[in-house]
Amino acid sequence: MSHILDIKTAGKPLDQAEKALIMIHGRGGSAQDILSLSQHLNVEDYAVLAPQATNGSWYPLSFIAPVEQNEPWLSSAIETIGKTVKSILDSGIKPENIYFFGFSQGACLTLEFLARNAQKFGGAVAIIGGVIGDKINRENYKGDFAQTPIFLATSNPDFHVPVERVYATANILREMNADVSEKVYANFGHSINQEEIELANTLIFK
Predict the structure, then answer these.
(1) Which of 7, 91, 102, 111 has the CA that lies 20 to 30 A from 58?
(2) Distance between alpha carbon 190 and the CA centroid of its chain, in Å?
(3) How far from chain centre, in Å, is Cα 206?
């Protein structure tokens, strides 16, 4: 009932890179899929790592289901991101040079991990996601982002992620001293658009 650690890589080898990007795929997606997106980001000199969710899903139900209903998968997924971060730190790359990119279920997981482990990171992009749980448990979120830039983008409406949760997440991140940018597209649908990629490059991977 837990994820097997399976990290796919692209870009520079960890021992040759000064920066690293962790990419978190969505439900039914794959590490290889989201790694291919890195070709459109300004990360040519980064090591790029993408953990693969066992059976293609990080947790079974909606991200706004009661947390206990998504266990033990959810805790294992958060631990998987932690292990991916540790592998980067162990290679000598500092936290302020670690970046994140998540889409959909992967965006929710990225934001939940970051809010639970706030510190000065390089930056993060979360496309269509918010912190996890039927209710927001603010006590879970600790630390200081020290002005880490975080870009949130979503569609309104989105079938999986209510825009209210995106706004609530942005507010929590700001309270924790993140430099948050947000962009809401009307009726765009559940996908990533070209402008979001350009904004990610402008705001985060500059």
Answers:
(1) 91
(2) 16
(3) 18
Q: Are 56 and 73 in contact (CB under 8 A)?
A: no
Alpha-helical regions (H) of the chain: 31-37, 73-90, 105-116, 163-175, 194-203
Q: Is the pTM of this model over 0.90?
A: yes
Decide if 14 contacts 87 (C-beta within 8 A). yes
- CATH number, position 177: 3.40.50.1820
CA distances from 22 to 30, 38, 107, 157 (A): 13, 10, 11, 27
Number of domains in the chain: 1
- Parent domain of 59: 6-204
For 115-137, how does the pLDDT look when each residue is reduced to its tens digit (9 = 90+)? 999 999 999 999 999 999 999 99
Q: Which two tokens stand for residue 9?
A: 């890589």
DSSP state of 61: S
